[in-house]
Amino acid sequence: MQDLLPVRYARMIASPFAFLRGAAAIMAGDLAHTAAAGPRVQSCGDCHLANFGSYASPEGTPVFDINDFDETLPAPFEWDIKRLGTSLVLSGRENGLSDSRARSLAVSMVQTYVTEIKRLARLSPLEVWSNPIDLSSAIAGFSDRHARRQARLLLAERMESASRHYGLVANGAGMPALREHPPLVMRLPAHEETIRKAFARYVATQPAELAVLLDRYVLRDVIFKVVGIGSVGTFCAIGLFATTDGEMLLLQIKEAGQSVLAPSAGPSLSHNQGRRVVTGQRIMQAQSDIFLGWTHSADRNGPACDMSDFSGVGRQFYVRRLKDARLAAIGSDVTPGGLPDHARLYGRVLARAHARSGDCALISGYVGKGHRFSDAIGSFSVHYADQTKADWSAFCQAVKTGRIAVR
User: Fold this and answer.
1) What angle separates helix 371-400 from helix 5-12, to the nearest 10 degrees?
2) Which of 328, 215, 285, 305 is nearest to 69 (CA)?
3) Which of 95, 178, 196, 369 fits a disulfide with 336 by CB distance 3.0 to 4.6 angstroms?
4) From the centroid of its chain, how far is CA 167?
């Protein structure tokens, strides 16, 4: 959606870290030219600190995990670690930390990753697979008293917002409807039918046990929503589903393109990129959304084909339950004093996510005690943070001279 790209570019101007978030393809291209140790995992593909966060499990427990998988693909295990380390250095600098303290965030994250990988290597595959991270327990382990207090306050405040439908549903008589919040949440009539048909295909192709649940709801309204930084410009919409007595379910449908890792890590085995995203999320997350699924827009050459693996010319999407953006942002809404504790939490989460698909013993053997490995990643993170700042400066200059339009 070309008319939305100036919004994306405007967000990337904010800081070197904001630029990093919107430039996953640039870093993926650079990582392809770095040395790789050999072990491969299901990679997040866009592993920066703002893509870690909290969400409620089916039982209502707040869990902490990676929460964005648009670029997921099997890749060298170091790539996620290097991108996460770079984001920590950039965030530390923007929060007023010295270069040495910003670097120590990346080193601490990696050392925690190493410790957790070694712990997981001693467990059975089943124990590794069912190992969610309870956010309340993680917060209790924070060493900084103020960080503990801040995280607890944020968690208590934000666990309430899901019951109010995030302010997106209009309160009024008659059928429930979604509320516009221009310019980021608004109706686009020219594209509404595409999304309605894609939602219909999603519902029609779900497993029988989920179809029983979805059959109780009817799609009542659709609205488009600009999300994130790297995703601005892709089709992203919210569907309001409701029962006859007014119970509501909000599902998000999001366009999926080829992963930025594909040119260097190899193409996905799934022809439908939505299926690629869903598969990667189910592999990496300890507790995934029951509504995760994939769909597509109409193939211009004929009727819709089998949803099991669509490779036609239409757009490809994945579907999930609309997550609470404010709850999810607990991963990145961190005060400077809380960065060290959160850096360690990110390392722990990433290790568990990698352990679900990778060879823990092989990775553990490679990293050893972790001191040389964490020092190497710390140095890389500082160098790539410097490179990102230089790229951001060139980008800002291109905006200033009018080569790139922003809105």
Assistant:
1) 120
2) 285
3) 95
4) 22
Lowest mean pLDDT, pick from 23-32, 121-130, 178-187, 345-354? 178-187
Residue 215 has phi, psi (to 5 degrees) of -65, -20
- For 68, phi and psi rounded to 5 degrees? -145, 125
- How sure is the predictor about 17, in pLDDT bands with cuts at 50, 70 and 90? very high
Cβ pair 212, 249 in contact under 8 A: no
Quote the CA–CA distance of 338 and 147 in Å, as a whole number: 5
Higher pLDDT, 87 or 6: 87
* Angstrom distance (rounded) from CA 302 to CA 166: 38
pTM (2 d.p.): 0.90
Helix (H, G, I), strand (E, B) or coil at 144: coil
Tens of pLDDT along 30-58?
Answer: 999 999 999 999 999 999 999 998 887 77
- 359, pLDDT greater than 90: yes
Radius of gyration, alpha carbons of the chain: 21
Question: Using CA atoms, how far apart are residues 94 and 105, in angstroms rounded to an integer?
Answer: 13
Q: Report the relative pairing of strands 169-170 and 73-76 from DSSP bridges.
A: unpaired
**What percentage of the chain has pLDDT greater than the value 70?**
89
DSSP 207: -
Query: Averaged over 373-389, what is the pLDDT?
Result: 98
Tokens 């999926």 belong to residue: 256
> Maximum CA pair distance of the chain?
64
**What does the buried/exposed string (b/e) look like for 148-174 if buried means 16 or more CB atoms within 10 Å of the residue's CB?**
bebbeebbeebbeebeebbebbeeeee
